[in-house]
Amino acid sequence: MSSPGRELSMALIISTAIWLAIIFGLRFLVLAPLRSQEAEAMFSLLAEVKPGGVAYVHDPENPLWEGRATRIEKRAGDIIAVALADGSATSYNLPVKIGVVRYLGAIAMAEAQLRSRIVIEGSFFEQFPDEEWIDLILAHEIAHLFSYEVGDEPHGGKWHAMCMRLYAGIMTGPPHPRACRVTLR
Ligand SMILES: [Zn+2]
Question: Cα of 184 to ligand 1 centre, how many Å?
Answer without folding.
Answer: 5
